[in-house]
Design a protein that fits this description.
By secondary structure, the chain is α+β, with helices and mostly antiparallel strands. The strands form three sheets. It has a four-stranded antiparallel β-sheet with strand order 5-8-7-6, with helices on both faces. Strand 7 and strand 8 form a beta hairpin. The longest helix is centred in the middle third of the chain and has 33 residues.
Amino acid sequence: MEKEIKAIKETKEFIAMTKKEFKVTNCVLCGKAIDGKCNSHSVPQFVLKELRDNSKLFSVNSVIDYTNGGLSLKGINNCGTFHLLCPNCDGHVFSDYENKEFLDTLPSTITSAFGCKIMAEIMLKSCLLEYYKKQQDHYFQDAINRIPEYEPKYIGDFSSIDAKDYMNQINNLKSIISSNSSNRFHVSCCRILDHKSKIAGQPLIAIRNDMQGKILNDVFNCDLSNEIVDTQFVVFPYNNKTLVLVYCLSEHYPKLRSFLDYLESLNGNKQLRLIQATIFSYSEEIYVNKETLDMIKNDKLSLKFAICSLEKKEVLSNLETQEMEETPETVSLSGYNKMKLFI
């Protein structure tokens, strides 16, 4: 087991080192040359600062780090960051949703052109992060395929295909932002809670199954005709309040209808718990402080959802309860209403 852990750690270090070498020379939004490295955040810094504990945050699924026995510390400057934009685009394109006062008005403006613009800005930022990850993966695949003794070589370049899909989405969202249009999104939840949540994030999620097990996104089907559609989740604590927002592009709603309709049918904390279980299960981009991470680790159901996105089956098999032995491919959201609520 010690040799396996060492090999996994060395692999992770090689991946991290290779991906750091990846650089973009021109701004993805305006096309201008990037002078230096602009550190763009997928989650507004004022949101992350609500949670900071000695300036360190953690991703939710770092409750188990089997490669070094420790926790994955993240400073605020390293949470959901990417390097694709020039300082001008980073500072101006997203100025509406990064304004606390505008977030306060969102429930009443959600169907207006301004509300539509804010939602497009949020989703655009999330798409940029995903695009950046896919481009890094593509760079890594090229690097590892250049190693003569490495076998087997990667067959196909699915990260490149995914990156093209995200770029199409980026261009679509840019058009929505500039068009002053409304009703471009289907909103399943828009609430401002009167307390500060213990978690924060804005993950873009390709939901695999609805609550009855029907496949919504066949994420393991690599056929070019297979369309993967995303749902945007938002949990923003700020000023002792929390914005909770769930929505998708209107044209994607028919494919996601069975899950989103079920979510919309729920009330109060039950709806919040389903949102929490979904983002814990699907995303690495949910951030907490050390105290909250310990609370998640000590709650059986919260832990189940937080680790089900991990790829190593060995981690799951080390847990004591039968309920936690599901693989990432088969794990469901059953039991979500019994988990501890952190929103």
